[in-house]
Amino acid sequence: MPKFRPPRKSAARAWIPLALGLAFCPGALARQRPVVPSPSRADPEKPLRQAVYGGHDLAGVREYDALIAAGHQPSAEASYLAGWAYCSLHWPEKARPLMRLAQDADYSPRGDREAPEEVLSKIDEYERAKPPAAQVPGLDRALIDPYSDSADESEARILAALPRFAEVGRAIFGNPPPVRFFLFAEEPASLSFSQALSFKPVEKSHTTGVVNMVHICAARIRRKDEDDVVALALHETTHAWLASYLRAKYDRSVRLPTYIDEGLAGYVSTLAAPPQRVAEREKRVMEERRERVREWLAQHPGPTEFDELVSYRDFHSDRNSLNYAMAALLAARMLGPVEAGAPKIPALLDALALSRDHEAAWRRITGKDVREEYRALAAEL
Ligand SMILES: [Zn+2]
Q1: Which structural domain range is residue 237 located in?
Q2: 210, 340, 342: which is closest to 263 by C-alpha?
Q3: For residue range 60-73, what is the model confidence (pLDDT) as tens digits?
């Protein structure tokens, strides 16, 4: 989703706006930088600047904390940059006091970056739009921290499913990255929230999962089948876990090919069903996906080329619905039945982050050639 933009000094930190149902997908790869050198007495803020300008938001906020712990009085620039890092991590609440310090010192950022006042007004907007904390019996808030503006049946069902989501997160990650879960009933409030998190005009509210945060507008995911609504909420939560896992572990932009991001989210979403019904639901959902692909192929020439599933733009073409179905079918083909296959996801993410080559990452984790498997999948349908 569009969000607080990072400081523009770093070209490596271009962000791609996200559309409905899509995870955070940083556009350009930030080269992993060497570990920040220990602060020199002459310029103790250098590691902080290097971290934030290099796209290492977590390192940036840690450096800031370290300065404070060492009794250093941070400059306005340091406070501003740490504030930016918190905004990028979707923690506007934590950015606020730092942006205030920058504002109080009349800090004006170089280039055309937003002034502290502008950032603070966005944070105020965010606070106004943010729904109240929700109480969900049986849910560990340390894993999924829910906020909701409605007690309607459909939203209540999504909230009631969160303890199951937490279980799914544990099954996949062991220790799933914590996420905040913002649930809006209707479009207007959800749109205000999206706008607050963006410096660009936003036409429609987001339903998305990004670093540290899930944002769902229930009005946008209403379906006839209530199980599908809950599955979509888990789909978005999966996007948030993928992005948050990579951020926590690598603290840089790791670009997930869109077919992997969407494929894994679709694959994991079948786990939304209670454990005793997962196998049955998986079978039904997979058959629906195959059916959707067959219907599409009956009216159009051939499936999408594999290479066109990689980039965000190509994936979200007029073949959108075909591509979502194919991505989820492909993920299932690569990883196998979901209960046994989903726990391989962290290793796949690690292989992707380290090799920067999605085909090699699949080979390493599954022993399979993803391009070949895609061809075979398309031929079978
Ligand atoms: Zn998605």
Answers
A1: 130-249
A2: 342
A3: 999 999 999 999 99
